[in-house]
Amino acid sequence: VQLQASGGGLVQAGGSLRLSCTASGNIFRINTMGWYRQAPGKQRELVATITSGRNTNYDDSVKGRFTISRDNAKNTVYLQMNSLEPEDTAVYYCNLKFTRYSFWGQGTLVTVSS
Fold first, then answer.
1. Which of 1, 16, 29, 48 is most solvent-facing, going by the fewest CB within 10 Å?
2. Which of 85, 68, 86 is nearest to 77 (CA)?
3. Residues 77/21, Cβ–Cβ less than 8 Å
4. What sign does the CA torsion over 90, 100, 73, 63 have?
5. What is the per-residue pLDDT for 30?
6. How far is CA 22 from CA 75, 84, 106, 114, in A?
7. Does position 23 have pLDDT exceeding 90, yes or no?
């Protein structure tokens, strides 16, 4: 299984970005896809997850600003990020989990300037 993420970049505070991540390979249809982030000097943390049944979970810090969605036919997960803050600056990683397996994408950098 491989995950390819895209959509990061530099944006001013208050702006928006949309991240995408497409999974390829032998993927079990019942799975959870999600986004995590790691800021400099900090541990990787959960941003949001979505199951194949489209149940979602968000970290409190992004609720109301970020929206996770997915296209099951394309094995793609999206993260719409609005009202971005400098504190959102991090490398964002997509993740795919099914059964006992967990796969990570390569990470995409999001930088929010004040």
1. 29
2. 68
3. yes
4. negative
5. 87
6. 6, 23, 12, 30
7. yes
Confidence class for position 89, pLDDT limits 50, 70, 90? very high
Q: Which residues pair with 80 in a beta bridge?
A: 18, 67
Backbone phi and psi for residue 83, each to the nearest 5 degrees, phi listed first: 50, 50
Residues 6+ apart with CB under 8 A from 16: 80, 81, 82, 83, 84
* CA distance to 21, 25, 49, 61, 109, per residue, from 87 (Å): 22, 34, 20, 10, 13
Q: What is the pLDDT of residues 24-80, one digit of tens each?
A: 999 888 899 999 999 999 999 999 999 999 999 999 999 999 999 999 999 999 999
